[in-house]
Amino acid sequence: MVLLTGTPVLLRSYRCHSSLGVRNSRVLSTNSSSIVLSIPKADVYRFGDGKNAQPLFRGLAWEIKEGENWAVIGSGGGGEKTALFNTLLGRYRIAPYPPPPGGMFPFLTLKGLDPYSEVSIVSFGHRQQAGGAFYDYSARYGAVHEEDRLTLRQSMFPETIPPLRMPYEEPNATVSSQPVTMSNEETAFFNDLVAQMGLGPFLDLPLVALSNGQTRRARILKAILKKPHLLLLDEPLTGLDVKTRPLLLDTLYGLHVKKAPRVIMALRAQDALPDWVDHVAYVSGSTVTTGERNAVMKQVETAIGGSTGKKSRNSKPSTSRIGDVLIDMKNIKVQYGDRKVLDQLSWQIRQGERWHLIGENGSGKTTLLSLITGDHPQSYTQTRYGDENHSRDTSSYLRLFSKPRSRLPTTLLRSAITIMSPELFDAFPRRANMSVWDVIGTGFDGDFVPKGKKSVGSGIGMKVGSSGDGRGGHEGSMEGQENWEEEEKWRVSRVWDVLEALGPDAWKRASTEIPPAASSFNLTKDFARMSFPSLPLPQQRMVLLMRALVSCAPLVLLDEVWSGMDEAMVTVAREYLRGDSPDGKIGIGSDQAVVVITHWEQEVPWNRDNDPEVFRQFKLSGGKGEELKR
Ligand SMILES: Nc1ncnc2c1ncn2[C@@H]1O[C@H](COP(=O)(O)OP(=O)(O)OP(=O)(O)O)[C@@H](O)[C@H]1O
């Protein structure tokens, strides 16, 4: 990118004819073309908003000069950071719009470049599948379907896709794995980036096979290769392991200083800001505070200080009761071709235990969970021993609630093991008429569409002693049966319980420390009625977490549930999982087992020192698994 330097020059001389004669319009200085973003002061609305609509952002004033290093941070759970990025992408109405000739992006417009093609976004809150149908995410674990065969390399360079051939045709000469359209310089740039992002080993894997962290890095790489002038990254660190985060940040900074492309990141208020960030836009509700890092961060600390203080509070000693073994695996193996993902792995999960499952991106955490949930086809093939009563030491097995996978109907497993994960978040159907209540109610029987008169399911479940009160469900629908009425009543009261413990009243309390007003039940009630697909994404995540917690299932699996949530939401979810919500009544049951996957140690709800029998850590590395003892 060539920047003009030196004394002010006339970049464009706009002449307009009027009855008063010809007059020169603004003379712009070189300084104007080195302004990346300019919003002098404006309100921001959704397109089509009526006259009296509340603006999304009020009095937004933001200027970014070339050479400055900006991050956007936000503390709201309403998707405010994403909305601010969407404002820059022209998806909202800005009033008044930054005046010509510079407009919102003088560094582009003044060089005749079109902002809409030169500014790109990679957003990780974004769902990849749209619509009302359930998308079967377990496809990734089995034989990869033809339509899912596209590799990472082919998705970036379609010219490397082999041409379709009829079976009788001679195979053509092999297709180059490197695109012919790339110059040597571009090839070197690409190879450097692939190496820096650790994506080399995955270039020729089908896209669906990539782990979460690998997929996120691949999406950033693809966006960079399109050579935008400005790249907006919405929570790029989410889901990345501890080792990868600084590598990605270094790569991004290296690109930013070369303006190839300039980068603005959006981070959660609780995330550590990289050292090189010198300017911050802090979004809180409809207010955006912009300025130098230190000044703005002071304000952020005051704003989120209350809830940050809570985070460091030590959890109480556990009241959990360690009970029966729920999941028992020995010498488990998962392999794709010669790629071993899990190799001779053994692990037991008992009632009452709280596990933190760790491991680098791609170490097999999601794969392991998919064996436990029975979604992975190889969950059927793990058990290898002649006689159940005389299993020898060399045997390998996977026992879910004392049974092999093949003897457990999927419907029973879905109500005995509840899960929230990035895959489920992407796959869960978004039907227009599905309310928050409906979605939470699907959690009892592990459904994906509302069932039953009161939208709390029809009573399929499993008797494995889950919630301490002997409630465990029933095999087959309970609707119309003798004890269904009592069960249904309990289910309805549970939906209200999780809504109160994890819903908008709880976020309000956690973010402001002000006790909820007497009328606050209306907030919860209104939220229960709201349309699920129209909620901001952080709130959708929270609702799907409630879905995983509502039934008090014997085993709860929480895979990266905090990603995309704001500080207050994380606080209330952690409280619930520790069982120390303010009224002391609602929380995870003492005989439920929980497995949490997160790359952020501070997001783990419990403190391992408090009760090492209960709070435990299991690490995956090189296909093996081991418990990390204190
Ligand atoms: N069908 C497949 N073919 C080949 N490799 C696969 C396939 N499916 C998964 N893998 C590989 O298995 C490994 C484990 O993936 P998994 O999603 O379990 O990792 P993870 O520990 O959950 O990672 P992350 O922290 O990024 O979410 C990855 O390296 C992935 O590329």
From TrEMBL:
It holds the Pfam family ABC_tran. Residues 39-310, 327-630 form the ABC transporter domain. GO terms for molecular function: ATP binding; ATP hydrolysis activity. Keywords: ATP-binding, Hydrolase, Nucleotide-binding, Transport. SMART domains: AAA. It comes from the Eukaryota. Residues 459-484 are annotated as: Disordered. Residues 459-470 have a biased composition (Gly residues). Belongs to the ABC transporter superfamily. This is P-loop containing nucleoside triphosphate hydrolase protein.
